[in-house]
Amino acid sequence: MSEGDINDVLIKTLAEAHANTNHKLDIVHEMFRKSQDVTRILYYKNMSQEELWLDCAEKLTAMIQQIIEFAKLIPGFMRLSQDDQILLLKTGSFELAIVRMSRLMDLSTNSVLYGDIMLPQDVFYTSDSFEMKLVACIFETAKSIAELKLTETELALYQSLVLLWPERNGVRGNTEIQRLFEMSMSAIRQEIEANHAPLKGDVTVLEILLNKIPTFR
Fold it and tell me: Where would I find the NR LBD domain in this sequence (predicted)?
């Protein structure tokens, strides 16, 4: 198979994996258009710090389950050693959750689809300065990805890149992980070059996305 044929297969496979492990985009956009449910927003705002973080942890756990299912569908991932699979998921799941959060962001209202309700960023603020900084950082990263207006296919390929980032400490099968990473890199480059003009002079969308990966940590 030529590189182009391999790219096409990978693009199709990952796009399907992404679609099967995420909210459908039309449902997300329908939620964007709904008027704010002030009563429920106040309910979340009035939660105690502990109640809010427990609720967030529950939502995150559900999302990570979907991320694990997505990872299993990445061609070659299940052939990595079990130790490497676990390490990649352990260190990469939260990063993928932020990438997935980007498609749930309504940039016009600075709100995120949280379960079945749109919640503004300030709902997640607490009196703890570290937690405030964490929330701000998560929202800023998700918004910066959303602003690039990636297609669903590009988001799928980007998740594969983030998960397979070969510079993670502790992985053993570096050569195989690097090979899978480069396959995803070739595919996302093909997609982005077809869909996006360079930004800020000659800086490409792909360069911006790659520069974000080390900052997730």
Answer: 6-217
